[in-house]
Specification:
With 96 residues, the chain is α+β, with helices and mostly antiparallel strands. The chain contains three helices and three strands, in the order αααβββ. Strands 1-3-2 form a three-stranded mixed β-sheet, with no helix packed on it.
Length: 96
């Protein structure tokens, strides 16, 4: 188990579920003009206090978050959360 308490098999299954989405995003990113994508002036002008630091003008994030907290098993160990995939193009993120 990793630091978050999820078995490695769970992480692998999630990555398999989102592989096609990630491949599509990767292809989309590769089609962008590098000069615009890595325009340091544009990146700095969009930066706001508290934002995640990014190095391009069109960042994409993969977020894995529980849909709801599951009860602990009989041994008192927390179970990994139920997850659902949600794709948001406007925010350029995949939430699992």
């Amino acid at each position: 188990m990793d630091w978050h308490g999820w078995p490695q098999g769970f992480a692998v299954s999630i990555m398999r579920r989102v592989r096609l989405d990630l491949e599509r995003e990767h292809a989309r990113i590769l089609q962008q003009c590098p000069d615009k994508l890595f325009d340091q002036q544009a990146i700095r002008s969009r930066a706001r206090p508290g934002d995640i630091a990014v190095d391009n003008t069109d960042p994409v994030f993969l977020t894995i978050a529980p849909k709801k907290q599951r009860a602990a098993d009989e041994g008192g160990q927390p179970r990994y959360p139920l997850c659902a995939k949600e794709w948001s193009r406007s925010a350029n993120s995949v939430a699992i």
